[in-house]
Predict the 3D structure of the following.
Amino acid sequence: MAKRTLAVTFLILAMLIAPCAVQAHAFIDHSDPAVGSTAPTSPKVVHIWFTQELEPAFSWIKVTDKSGVAVNDGPSFVDAKNNQEMDIKLKQLPAGTYTVKWHALSVDTHTTHGDFTFKVKGS
């Protein structure tokens, strides 16, 4: 009986701790332009909101065209008023598909990275 009680207690504790461990990384919550979306005109900025606060010195965004040429207008930055948001200004973009690559270091020292695309219908 004691082994069964111990096993059930361990299982309950594991279920309570697991969600906290999963949330210990900065993943994309949402973005503008949205992942996989088509913008009617050239966006001026890509905004990405994350699930955790970011460490600005070690987090970045790069935006490239289909040839791999950077189309950003300056470096990315973490928003001073909301350190869960990272932005990058863009040059005027012609119609086409663009790739957003990101790297995020959350303040709890976990890193994540990824990419997504969006399209511009016309300028």
